[in-house]
Design brief:
Number of strands: 16
Structural class: alpha/beta
Order of helices and strands: EEEHEEEEEHEHEHEHEHEHEHEHE
CATH architecture of the largest domain: Alpha-Beta Complex
Largest sheet: 7 strands, mixed
CATH class of the largest domain: Alpha Beta
Bound molecules: NADPH dihydro-nicotinamide-adenine-dinucleotide phosphate
Number of helices: 9
Length: about 350
């Protein structure tokens, strides 16, 4: 089997030489284990963000979907599909044994959710960790109410595109920020955002003031940095901010990271609530998000899009492309033809 191993702590944008692809022998299965052939691998921003906290070398983690080839676990028969967090590998042994190296306690593997005929790849996207992030982060932390104005950054990405559409379903006015005119057009024409803005080519403060003349009630923050300061400064009384990610600084040297700009007056006087979250907090509720998202897709209320890269050898390029904003929708890698 093959797997990607991270050799270094990244400096700036991760380099190809920071990864090794290693061939290794798979051990025979023990009781309770399954052998999975990978079909879809996810490339996500947290792969970059969590690098500093890990000691190197380590196996590259990420969500993946595969099909069971051999099974010594009756719950996962041969031919069934499984979602796991064992990352960039073409074959994976999974175990329920909590002491096993094939077990990730934060994200134990689980059966493919009932996708009602949709592509299994969605299990690493809209019906996977990013979908749960959008659904639970927005509904639990922002608690958007009908008629309120919701702003989302990273709006054309895996999480952001779903956040905006759920906010529309909940009857909100939705404004999204994204990094290209094509993304802006997709958000407005296909996803029904009330307004989308290219943050690279516009004056963010002025554009937001025009798009949200009555101010912002909820902000789902995927990017952090200066744009977030501007958005937070235009929030209404008792506004809610879900701090989901800060991709604008993931490639920065953590020791030289800029301090947050001065926001205190608006946070205090407007009595805002800002809350950071990690979606694994609600791991036992992901299935709720999945069921509702699948239903919305089937009902035509939620549009999903994927940016597919083919081939196990191209995972690095897919990952770097996602960090650079090449993806509209969820960036995924198709490993082998099912
Ligand atoms: P996306 O699909 O949104 O892909 C990343 C996108 O980030 C790119 O397409 C690019 O779009 C944008 N981007 C890159 N650099 C910058 C920058 N300097 N400023 C602004 N935008 C930038 O990824 P995900 O949807 O998977 O993740 C979105 C965010 O959510 C990330 O911050 C991630 O870490 C976070 N996250 C948090 C979770 C949690 O539990 N808290 C779980 C999952 C994700 P563009 O062209 O618009 O610049």
């Amino acid at each position: 089997a093959r797997k990607y191993v991270v050799k270094n702590h990244f400096k700036g944008v991760p380099k190809r030489y920071d990864f090794d692809v290693i061939e290794y022998e798979l051990a025979p299965l023990r009781e309770g284990e399954i052998l999975v052939k990978t079909e879809w691998i996810s490339v996500d921003p947290y792969i970059r963000a969590y690098n500093a906290a890990r000691s190197v070398p380590y196996d590259q983690f990420s969500f993946q979907v595969g099909q069971v080839q051999e099974s010594r676990d009756r719950e996962f028969p041969v031919g069934s599909r499984v979602v796991s967090h064992l990352g960039w590998r073409d074959y994976t042994i999974l175990s329920k044994d909590k002491t096993s190296k094939y077990y990730d306690p934060r994200h134990p593997h689980y059966k493919l959710p009932d996708l009602k005929g949709l592509s299994p790849s969605l299990a690493v996207g809209a019906v996977g960790m990013p979908g749960a992030t959008a659904y639970l982060g927005l509904l639990e932390i922002c608690q958007p109410k009908k008629g309120e104005t919701v702003v989302v950054t990273g709006a054309a990405g895996a999480v952001g595109s779903i956040v905006g559409q759920i906010a529309k379903i909940k009857g909100c006015r939705v404004i999204g920020f994204a990094g290209s005119d094509d993304k802006v057009e997709w958000l407005e024409k296909d996803l029904g955002f009330d307004k989308a803005i290219n943050y690279k080519t516009s004056d963010v403060a002025a554009a937001l003031k025009e798009a949200a003349p009555k101010g912002v009630d909820c902000y789902f923050d995927n990017v952090g940095g200066e744009i977030s300061s501007v958005i937070i400064s235009q929030m209404n009384m008792f506004g809610r901010v879900a701090l989901c990610g800060s991709i604008s600084s993931y490639n920065e040297d953590a020791s030289k990271m800029p301090k947050a700009s001065i926001l205190q007056p608006s946070i205090v006087f407007k009595q805002l609530k800002l809350e950071g979250f990690i979606v694994s907090r609600w791991f036992d509720r992901w299935h709720e998000a999945f069921a509702e998202i699948v239903q919305w897709i089937h009902d035509g209320k939620l549009v999903v899009r994927e940016h597919v890269t083919e081939g196990f050898d191209n995972i690095y390029d897919a990952f770097i492309g996602m960090l650079a904003g090449e993806n509209t929708g969820k960036a995924v890698v198709k490993v082998q033809r099912p």
